[in-house]
Amino acid sequence: MPDLAAPLIAWYRENARDLPWRRDGYGAWGVLVSEFMLQQTPVNRVIPHLEAWLERWPSPADLAGDAPAEAVRQWANLGYPRRALWLHRAAVEIRDRHAGRVPREVEDLLALTGIGDYTARAVAVFAYGDRHPVVDTNTRRVLARAVEGRSQPGPPSRRDLEDMAAILPVDHSAAAIVNAAAMELGATVCTSRAPRCGACPIAHACAWRAAGYPDTGDARRKQATYEGSDRQARGAVLRALRDADGDDLPLDHVIADWPDPRQRDRAIDSLIADGLAEAVNGALRLPRGSETVTSG
User: Fold this and answer.
1) Which helix (H) or strand (E) holds 278?
2) Which end of the chain is more exposed for a tag (fewer CB within 10 A), N or C?
3) What does the pLDDT read at residue 265?
């Protein structure tokens, strides 16, 4: 395999965006919160929410000491609000199991609520400087094209980690830069629909380019349309609960004008099942206790 690390490092040092979590001294808690927020949410939407979150809760213990409802309320419109509850539960676990310090070992990170393989490795690498392959959606696209000659990546697999590990330098700090550079390249240059191959630092070694840019298909799962979906109904219910500012809302007043009453009821039931809402005495509210949060 050609050396991809050296051109990636040189390119990254000249072209990396100035993002908060990349700055020196940002800390493991800031990196962890940023990774929770960046799951399925664009960077430009995350940054203001991240800054507000860390100003309010600058440590895991600060968040753990507050009510789960406050985490959901602060999450606002970031989407996939179960992440707010997972992050709150992870903060409680960090406080109770790790003396308030975000753990360093991947196995310990994986044991926290809401943390999967990518997030655990990202914290270990970008917060603590350890050497692991870190693979997100953008990295997977870069690897699919540069290494495997495919136009789009297939479903996630362990092979992604193996491919990334194969291009990492031995030096830990250099390996961290290569991990970050592959993500940055996929996000800004090797994009899904309009890759800018003329600006790519590894175009000379790209298997997809050498093969003539073949369309090898796209097996990725397509996300359902948001408009009119149950997700939209869930978001409307949560918005109503956040706007209630801690007050209970009578169930029949919660998005009472929603055009599909059955979808409204499904949304309320699913939020209760996920721990994002509580039904008490015929009213609905954000969670106030330390209830169990389901994964998924």
Assistant:
1) strand 278-280
2) C
3) 86
pLDDT at 51: 95
Angstrom distance (rounded) from CA 254 to CA 268: 9
Closest CA to 192 of 235, 156, 148, 152: 152
Please name the residue ranges forming H helices in the chain.
Answer: 5-15, 28-38, 43-56, 60-64, 68-75, 82-97, 106-110, 117-126, 137-146, 158-167, 172-188, 207-210, 230-243, 261-273
CA distance 133 to 292: 32
Cβ burial, residue 222 (10 Å; 0-12/13-18/19+): exposed
pLDDT for residue 218? 78
Kindly state the tokens that stand for 94.
């960090």
Determine the Cα–Cα distance for residues 166 and 262; give it in Å rounded to an integer. Answer: 51
Confidence of residue 223 (pLDDT cuts 50, 70, 90): low
Positions marked active-site? 35
Its pTM stands at 0.82
Give the tens place of pLDDT for each residue, 165-195: 999 999 999 999 999 999 999 999 999 999 9
Res 141: pLDDT: 96
CA atoms lying within 13 Å on the CB side of residue 206: 25
| pLDDT for the residue numbered 280 | 87
Q: If we measure between CA atoms, which residue out of 69, 34, 61 comes closest to residue 248?
A: 69
Which residues, listed in sequence order, are joined to residue 249 by a DSSP beta bridge? Answer: 284
Comparing 185 with 80, the larger pLDDT belongs to 185
Phi, psi of 156 (to 5 degrees): -55, 140
Question: Residues 172, 117, 139, 17: is their CA dihedral positive or negative?
Answer: negative
Which residues are CB-neighbours of 166 under 8 A, at least 6 positions away?
1
Could you write out the DSSP letters of every residue in 40-57?
A: TS-HHHHHHHHHHHHHH-
SS3 state of residue 245: coil
